[in-house]
Design brief:
Chain lengths: 560, 266, 420
């Protein structure tokens, strides 16, 4: 039998029609769809036990409490710690995506020496050499930690220790220079304030921990025509805080000092304030012309400021004029104002000042990326993420987010002392060392972070003051042993101290040595020696706020 | 699950919203949204999106407000459910949640044209995480692939956990403290109140019917389950497109431009 | 014919004259190039994803959907001519029937090809058949267009099988003969299916509650746009066929159909267009005065964004609607070919404008009170794919014209046994 072309055609057509009646094409179709639902190059979450651990955020000195969900041993989700008495479960947008920071493409994983890869051994050798040749300055961005104690001890013998303070702490610097009380020992008693007048401080947008003032404002002012807490915001443009404030006063940019002087003058002349103080040299008319407000507007503002005491004035940074206003308002050492929170006496040097004749500068990873010290010394910069600055000779990979045990000292704005211990929740994926570990390797006498934390827990126990806030609230006096206290702290409890009665302490704070109205004595931050540095390294998902919405402007790239 | 179906919804207090964006980030992290450095306001995946809106004035009379927008979980004639050609989205009878199934979605995007709130987002590209970051993925939520639509699903994974917890304790009803969506949990000012609108005893239900509460585009008639509230009349007037017959004011509040580096002023 | 080394004369029907093969290939070359670029663009979209286009979350539908709706409207001439010839027994339109089938086939297969690239997950396209949503207009569209493409293929196959060489296979001849008996049935099915999918394409937008610009009242489950789309499609289908035939006559330099066809097709198109304009005007008035304001959208707010002002609405109804309707039906103008074809072009432009307004302008207009009027420009990949469909159409039509008896007359011609 001859198979013809026609036969083939017929069989071919028949087969094609017949296949449609078998499961084959339908199964293939179904399989193809299932394949499209399970592409191998799309990552899936890992399977593994899910646990919840408590720790504290280390992205800024506010140390907000965290509940960290872990899956298969890695952090997979962040939420606030609702039992924290001060941060109360509130977090800023960055914290929610901070667990992904450790895999940021700009994560520093190897030692870099002047833009080429180096090693820890080389860094240690260079540092050792530097120590032998001259003074070493250590700059700390998060003072008060166990690591800070290590820095201080190291620097005592070999050079100096300086603190790069947060803006909230910088705003307290004038009181430090007038009374001798360290800025770190002062806090803002916002819980008792009824009027807060902010001169450019972003009270609802990044000032202190969100759980602190933002939550307070939400509970006592938001949506109320006559709020219990009056927020008066002085801002040149309509900032986030200004749009939500009870009153927004718009002045020409940079004229806050003039406004403060004008308002203070009126208050003092009309005896509307309880305390006396130096009279500002500026007249009301001058203040009006500088700020762009009318004299009546300034008078009204002044009356409003004192209408519902206690009142406190808050500056966006180190502003002596605003500090002098607080002196005039009698806010120092009073309930609802600037209060003493610890008996610390030691005043720390600011890192903003020029560093004279140092051989090497060690910058801890907690110092903000855009901080560049005024020095020509060899810089050993510890960082977990590479912001791209080429100013430092040595870039040394430090532990990232929640990758090492650390402790959480009192937050910059708190009115009472607090303490907590932040356990590590993630594992480093490269060889990392913190600055404290690095320095400790050069000096056997220095204690380890662990030991210092242990000593601090004992100290708190012995003092028998304050309470522990964990699953339950327990006064320290009722805690059975130092070991129990330490256990609680290491599993996420927070110790909160008693408020200090400033008046009864007869502190120097009450008699701030202010003979005359301050001239503008803020140190200039000259930028002529700075190279270009890019925007801060943010948690990747936080970029949505800048790029995928109209909510925020992207962070500035600073260039010279 | 108990006999009475739930109707989960929210009341968002716009007087409390400071526009911080914590809800946006928490939502993206909870739902395993990939970081997209090249995305723009029109191509990004933001199941929770906070919009900055102004009253159109400039100078001292200018006012702004922040409006978190997410899927409104429309109860009546749900636009996206009606138009999906293959039933990849449905209103869950037991909870009222409008459930999107990315695995069934074919990516025709008809639902996106149907949604008046623009609360649906398309995966224009495959999600890509930097090396190692996949270890940070939330185990409760499946990742999606390119070419499918996604949106807010009221953190259904958390509802699932709450159900499991209740079942383990022998209860039929979940404890509402166990079921809080990521945005509500994240909000530092507690502006997002989540609750069961079918429960008359739920404080959220009372709030939803209070005088200052309103819903976006309520006149279209989709019965959204996300309510807003504000004491300011100008904010409440944002609910409807034309605030009165014959009166339309163009509100140049914000621009969703195609480029990433846009300048944002109202 | 000159016996050049390169010839395909055995494929060309006896007695028909066609240009030489090298010249034909030359004609095809630029279209093939356009097709190649478009296929590459489509490949990029399939491989890299739809980020290759400029569509985004606010313009989820773009150039391609406009293209789909447009060519399906223009391709309505296929079913409508079949309806006229087989159901209404208008035998004088037979000469244009085959070309109508080919144009229809090209339009629908092109639309389906574009749809396959337009969806994010083409491998799951069949889910619509497996999990259909009876409330969704798009389900209806998918089913009807798939079935109708099948019908068109079945109508095209007999034409294919009448190729000189293929006819030599007896089984093909028999098959073709059997299919031929089926053609009136296919025409009826095609009419029914087309009625529904042309309507549903209009329904796609008419049901959008969330887009008051597009939302319309209706009858039972069908919004008015359902009926308006059918009307506009059957009104402009014949016009498009006229334009295609006139173009082919120009390019080939031949008279292919009796002159009378143009006048008749024009008249049908004009009358239907007139009915459409009347219906659309009523619909627009209802929408402006009742439907849109009742959901809080003052209608004039749709027209304050330049350049999409009221001139667009005026253009749709008067310039590209009423005017061509008049020109096509008025004796004096309908007698002249130039007027007829210009009017046909206006009518086709009108239907394209209508589809554009509903697909693109709907998405550009704000819904939330704080939204803005948006802009969208297609990417080169989108435009190239569009170009590929046009190139595909030209190539398929050129091949059909060359090798198949598209315009054969029923005059007892041997080459045309079946007689149509």
């Amino acid at each position: 039998m001859k198979v013809t072309r026609r036969d083939l055609l017929v069989w071919g057509a028949g087969a094609a029609a017949g296949i449609a009646f078998t499961p084959v094409p339908w199964k293939i179709l179904d399989d193809v769809s299932i394949w499209s639902q399970n592409w191998s190059w799309i990552p899936q979450p890992a399977r593994g036990p899910v646990e919840v651990k408590q720790s504290f955020c280390t992205l800024c000195p506010n140390g907000c409490g965290l509940r960290v969900r872990t899956g298969a041993g890695w952090p997979v989700g962040i939420a606030g710690m609702s039992t924290h008495p001060i941060t109360r479960g509130a977090l800023c947008p960055l914290a929610f995506a901070a667990h992904q920071l450790n895999w940021h493409p700009q994560r520093l994983r190897a030692v870099r020496h002047q833009s080429s890869t180096s090693s820890w051994a080389a860094a240690q050798a260079a540092f050792s050499k530097a120590c032998s040749e001259g003074k070493v300055v250590v700059i700390d961005g998060y003072a008060g930690r166990a690591a800070s104690q290590i820095f201080e001890a190291f620097a005592e013998k070999r050079g100096s220790y300086r603190v790069a303070a947060s803006p909230e702490t910088r705003a307290l610097a004038p009181y430090e220079s007038w009374s001798g009380v360290p800025a770190n020992a002062l806090g803002y008693d916002l819980e008792n304030a009824q009027t807060v007048v902010s001169f450019g401080a972003p009270m609802l947008d990044g000032w202190g921990a969100p759980g602190r003032f933002t939550r307070l404002w939400a509970e006592r002012a938001a949506g109320m025509a006559d709020p219990q807490l009056r927020l008066i915001q002085i801002d040149a443009s309509l900032t986030r805080t200004a749009t939500k404030a009870w009153q927004w006063i718009s002045i020409r940019p940079g004229t806050e000092d003039a406004l403060v002087a004008g308002a203070a003058r009126f208050l003092l002349e009309e005896h509307l304030v309880p305390a006396n103080g130096p009279m500002p040299p500026l007249t009301l008319v001058d203040a009006a012309s500088q700020t762009g407000l009318t004299t009546d507007a300034i008078r009204n503002l002044a009356r409003t400021i004192v209408a519902k005491p206690p009142v406190v004035a808050i500056a966006g940074g180190n502003n002596p004029a605003v500090a002098a206003l607080n002196v005039a308002l009698g806010a120092l050492g009073q309930t609802g104002g600037i209060v003493l929170r610890s008996k610390q006496k030691k005043v720390y040097e600011s890192a903003d000042a020029v560093i004279p004749k140092a051989r090497a500068v060690v910058i801890d990873s907690t110092v903000p990326w855009d901080f560049v010290p005024r020095t020509d010394a060899e810089i050993f910069r510890f960082a977990a993420w590479d912001g791209g600055s080429n100013k430092a000779e040595w870039l040394l990979p430090a532990p990232g987010f929640l990758e090492e045990l650390t402790d959480v000292p009192t937050a910059p704005t708190s009115a009472v002392e607090t303490y907590a211990v932040a356990p590590a929740v993630a594992k480093p994926t490269a060889e990392v060392h913190s600055a404290a570990q690095f320095l400790a390797s050069f000096d056997a006498e220095l204690n380890s972070t662990d030991k210092i934390i242990h000593a601090r827990c004992e100290e708190i126990f012995r003092a028998r003051a304050g309470s522990l806030y964990g699953r339950e609230t327990t006064p320290v006096a009722q805690v059975a042993s130092a070991q129990k206290l330490e256990e609680q702290l290491r599993s996420g409890a927070v110790w909160v101290g008693e408020p200090l009665k400033t008046a009864s302490l007869k502190s120097n704070l009450l008699k701030c040595n202010l003979k005359e109205w301050p001239a503008d004595t803020r140190p200039e931050r000259s930028e002529d020696w700075a190279a270009e540095w890019p925007a801060p390294v943010l948690p990747p998902l936080a970029l949505k706020l800048y790029q995928e919405s109209s909510l925020r402007e992207p962070p500035e790239r600073k260039t010279v | 699950m108990s006999g009475t179906p739930a109707r989960y919804g929210m009341v968002i207090d716009l007087d409390r919203c400071t526009g911080c964006g914590a809800c946006m980030v928490a939502c993206a992290a909870e739902n395993n949204v990939a970081p997209t450095p090249q995305a723009t306001p029109r191509t990004g995946v933001t199941p929770m999106l906070v919009r900055k809106v102004s009253n159109g004035m400039h100078g001292a009379t200018r006012r702004e407000t922040f409006i978190p927008i997410m899927c409104m979980h429309c109860e009546h004639e749900t636009p996206c459910v009606k138009v999906c050609p293959q039933q990849a989205v449905e209103v869950d009878k037991a909870t009222g949640i409008v459930m999107q199934m990315p695995q069934r979605c074919l990516g025709c995007r008809y639902c996106m044209t149907a949604c008046p709130y623009h609360a649906r987002y398309f995966n224009w590209r495959d999600p890509v995480w930097p090396a190692g970051m996949e270890k940070s993925l939330n185990p409760g939520v499946a990742t999606r692939m390119r070419g499918v639509v996604e949106k807010c699903n009221l953190c259904h994974a958390r509802l699932h956990s709450a159900n499991e917890k209740a079942a383990a304790a022998g209860r039929r009803e979940i404890d509402m403290a166990d079921y809080v969506p990521a945005c509500g949990e994240a909000c530092p000012t507690n502006a997002i109140h989540f609750g069961n609108l079918a429960d008359q005893n739920d404080p959220v239900t009372r709030e939803a019917h209070s005088a200052n509460a309103f819903r976006m585009l309520a006149r279209i008639g989709t019965e959204p389950k996300v309510y807003y509230k504000s004491k300011d009349p100008w904010v409440r007037a944002l609910a409807e497109s034309a605030s009165g017959p014959g009166k339309f004011s163009e509100r140049p509040a914000e621009r969703l431009a195609a480029s990433a580096s846009e300048v944002h002023h109202g | 014919m000159a016996s050049a080394a390169l010839t395909d004369s055995r494929w060309i029907a006896r007695g028909e004259e066609r240009t030489s093969l090298p010249r034909f290939l030359l004609w095809l070359t630029p279209w093939a190039a356009l097709l190649a670029v478009g296929v590459y663009a489509a490949f990029l979209c399939l491989y890299y994803g739809l980020n290759q286009t400029n569509m985004d979350n606010r313009f989820a539908f773009g150039l391609w959907i406009f293209l789909d709706l447009g060519i399906i409207a223009l391709g309505a001439g296929a079913f409508f001519t079949g309806f006229l010839v087989y159901i209404l027994k208008r035998a004088e339109l037979r000469p244009i029937l085959n070309t109508a089938v080919v144009v229809g086939f090209i339009c629908y297969s092109g639309a389906v090809a574009i749809l396959m690239i337009d969806v994010g997950q083409p491998l799951r396209a069949w889910f619509t058949f497996w999990h259909p949503n009876t409330h969704s207009m798009l389900t209806e569209v998918t089913f009807c267009i798939s079935c109708y493409l099948l019908v068109l293929s079945l109508e095209y196959i007999p034409l294919l099988l009448r190729n000189r060489q293929l006819r030599k296979l007896p089984s093909f001849l028999v098959f073709e003969h059997q299919l031929h008996k089926l053609v009136p049935v296919l025409a009826a099915i095609g009419t029914l299916l087309s009625f529904f999918h042309q309507g549903s394409l209009g329904g796609l937008y008419g049901v959008l509650r969330g887009r008051p610009f597009a939302y319309r009242e209706g009858i039972f489950i069908w919004p008015s746009t359902f009926f308006l789309f059918i009307l506009s499609a059957i009104a402009t289908g014949p016009s498009f066929l006229m334009l295609v035939t006139a173009t082919v006559e120009k390019v080939t330099g031949r008279t292919l159909v009796p002159r009378e066809i143009y006048r008749r097709m024009g008249f049908i198109s004009g009358v239907l267009l007139g009915i459409y304009v009347a219906a659309k005007s009523i619909d627009t008035l209802v929408w402006l005065n009742h439907t849109s304001p009742s959901v809080g959208f003052a209608p004039w707010q749709y027209y304050i964004h330049k350049p999409f002002g009221t001139p667009v609405l005026f253009g749709e109804i008067v310039l590209f609607g009423l005017l061509p309707a008049f020109l096509l039906t008025y004796k004096k103008t309908a007698a002249h070919r130039a007027w007829l074809l210009s009017a046909a072009a206006l009518a086709c432009a009108g239907v394209l404008l209508n589809r554009f307004v509903l697909t693109v302008q709907t998405l550009a207009l704000p819904t939330l009170s704080f939204d803005q009027f948006l802009e969208y420009t297609p990417s080169w990949q989108e435009v190239a794919s569009f170009g590929a469909v046009i190139a595909y159409g030209v190539i398929v039509y050129s091949l059909s014209y060359r090798y198949l008896p598209l315009f054969a007359q029923p005059k007892g011609d041997d080459s045309n046994v079946s007689g149509h």
